[in-house]
Design a protein that fits this description.
The protein is globular, with a radius of gyration of 24 Å. Strand 3, helix 3 and strand 4 form a beta-alpha-beta unit. The chain is α/β, with parallel strands linked by helices. The longest helix is centred in the first third of the chain and has 17 residues. The strands form six sheets. It has a seven-stranded mixed beta sheet with strand order 7-6-5-3-4-8-9, with helices on both faces. A five-stranded mixed beta sheet has the order 12-13-14-15-16. Helices cover 31% and strands 24% of the residues. Among the domains are: 241 residues, 3-Layer(aba) Sandwich (Rossmann fold); 113 residues, ANL, C-terminal domain (GMP Synthetase, Chain A, domain 3, 2-Layer Sandwich), CATH 3.30.300. The structure holds adenosine monophosphate.
Length: 553
């Protein structure tokens, strides 16, 4: 018997899953709700609805048609939120440009995505000026400005954002189209090769919004609900700020966009606006907690999701002592991004704080609709015993279906019908994933896998250590050996040296928490640790630098 498709009477509305459907109700139901942009602007959801119409109408006036790509270079702002809606809602594609890439890489992404219109913050004009002769497709530049002054620039500026909106129609009629229409695109910032473009459809973004919403809509620990105040601290150019602005808007909560990230400013915004829900990478939280102003702010109502890199237990502990509800999440550019959240299950609420901390620092449970597996090379499932590592592969309705104009890498990403994350992890009996390494960063010493993340966690527990990264370096006898780079806390630098750190790790070997092969051959004390454009440890660069150092003796 073959499956039967549903019948649809000619007048029935099929309801494509379009981003415009996320916006209607919150604007209607919470018109007075606030959206704040740092010290620059306060507006309401009613304003958001009208300005989204005005923006689309203005862009249409500049010639933007369905299928065209509109690029944005801005700090996190109310404008960026408007672009998140207006551009896809008119059937165009939003390219969120990573402003931390090098000018050459930015040039590559603008040309590769075929951006027709560029909305650019005054602060980033120098980047564009440096590459302007080689930008191919851009027809118009629209200025995003917080200074109130017209800049002197050699670039041909078509108009500024506020003038464009002032002349636009707040009731712009947004059409229906296929839910599989491309809505957004942006580029992954791998440490090798050219940036790779990923892309997401309306359907994918709507389903991601509801997948994340359903996981967060719960009482108590790890929740996000109507009474929260949302402050993103993950750039909007990076995987749509993890897609949470769409979630926040759907909920109709107050939203606070912080502009450029300055730790003192962020703390001030948390206090002044009453922010209760944020997400960021570990480095940013580290900076906030190290700020001299942190003691002036009550963080006990703050919930923070940490992702982009593993959440170190030392950092989680520090956050917990301030009453922060901290927990990890996991995903990647290719996955829209959220795949897992490290929320506590109800029965874990009775556990000791120490056991709970361990769960909060895991990589998390797959959220609804995500099928997440840990597999061997032949795609066979590995046991869920918390200690059988393999590659994490996934299926979900919101994964990029390929890389932009790159068929062979796309097939490689999706080999066997699962998206290959390139991450190594293990699933425990409760179903929680713990990522232990990147496939390309994994250290194999004497035939054994050594987790650089676990080693980093142990080193970070030393009271004198501010930052660390562990890399694998070639070794004639063992294949590879670990080397640790360590930045010391300035006030502890005189009391901590390489021998002290190695002794620190030996204590974990004695307790059976680290194999004796896990003690790095060298612990290098350094001033800084190289990071990628989104603040992650750049292990490729570290390995290259270490190799050069060895060659130079
Ligand atoms: P990106 O595409 O730049 O967002 O980077 C995604 C990568 O960051 C993942 O493939 C992981 O290697 C890493 N990552 C993200 N979240 C976590 C996490 N909670 N724990 C460990 N690694 C993570």
């Amino acid at each position: 018997m073959s499956a039967k498709l549903i019948d649809r009477t000619p007048s029935a509305y099929g309801y494509p899953l379009l981003i415009k459907h996320l916006l209607g109700n919150p604007v209607r139901h919470f018109p007075q709700q606030e959206i704040v942009y740092g010290d620059f602007k306060r507006q309401s959801y009613r304003d958001l609805g009208e300005r989204v119409g005005r923006l689309a109408s203005g862009l249409a006036g500049l010639g933007v048609k369905p299928g065209d790509t509109v690029a944005v270079m801005d700090w996190d702002s109310h404008r960026y939120l408007e672009c998140f809606f207006a551009v896809p809602m008119m059937g165009a594609v939003l390219h969120t440009v990573n402003i931390r890439l090098s000018p050459e890489q930015i040039l590559y992404t603008i040309n590769h995505a075929e951006d027709g219109i560029l909305l650019v913050n005054t602060e980033f004009l120098p980047i564009l000026e440096a590459i302007r002769d080689r930008i191919e497709p851009v027809k118009h530049i629209v200025l995003l400005d917080d200074t109130g002054q017209r800049p002197t620039t050699a670039l041909d500026i078509a108009t500024d954002y506020e003038s464009l909106l002032a002349a636009g129609d707040p009731a712009y009629p947004f059409p229906d189209f296929s839910e599989d229409t491309r809505a957004t695109t942006f580029y992954t910032t791998g440490t090798t090769g050219l940036p790779k473009g990923v892309y997401f459809s309306h359907r994918q973004l709507v389903l991601h919004t509801f997948g994340v919403l359903s996981a967060l809509a719960r009482p108590g620990q790890g929740s996000f609900h109507r009474d929260d105040v949302y402050l993103p601290i993950t750039p909007m150019f990076h995987v749509h700020a993890w897609g949470v602005p769409y979630v926040a808007t759907t909920l109709g909560v107050k939203q606070v966009y912080p502009g450029r990230y300055v730790p003192e400013k962020l703390l001030e915004l948390i206090a002044r606006e009453g922010a209760t829900f944020s997400h960021c990478v570990p480095t940013i939280l580290q900076m906030l907690l190290a700020s001299p102003y942190v003691d002036q702010v009550d963080l006990s109502r703050w919930k923070v999701i940490i992702g982009g890199a593993a959440l170190p237990q030392a950092l989680a502990n520090q956050a917990r002592t301030r009453g922060i509800d901290i927990f990890a999440a996991y995903g990647m550019s290719e996955t829209c991004p959220i795949l897992t959240l490290a929320q506590l299950k109800p029965h874990m609420m009775a556990w000791s704080e120490e056991r709970q901390l361990e769960i909060r620092c895991k990589t998390g449970l797959a959220i609804p609709l995500v099928e997440l597996r840990v597999v061997d090379q032949d795609l066979n499932d590995l046991p869920h015993d918390g200690k059988s590592p393999g590659e994490v592969v996934v299926r979900a309705p919101w994964l990029t279906q390929g890389y932009l104009k790159d068929p062979s890498t796309s097939e490689q990403l999706w080999r066997g019908g699962y998206l290959h994350t390139g991450d190594i992890g293990a699933i425990d009996q409760e179903g929680y994933l713990k990522i232990t390494d990147r496939l390309k960063d994994v250290i194999k010493t004497g035939g054994e896998w050594l987790s650089s993340l676990e080693l980093e966690d142990l080193i970070l527990k030393h009271p004198g250590v501010a930052e660390t990264a562990v890399i694998g370096v070639p070794d004639a006898k063992w294949g590879e050996r670990p080397v640790a780079l360590v930045v010391l806390k300035p006030d502890r630098a005189s009391q901590t040296d390489e021998a002290a750190l190695r002794d620190w790790l030996k204590a974990f070997v004695d307790k059976g928490l680290l194999s004796k092969w896990g003690i790095p051959d060298r612990v290098l004390l350094v001033d800084t640790i190289p990071k990628t454009s989104v603040g992650k440890l750049d292990k490729k660069l570290m390995r290259d630098q270490y190799q050069k150092m060895i060659q130079q003796g």
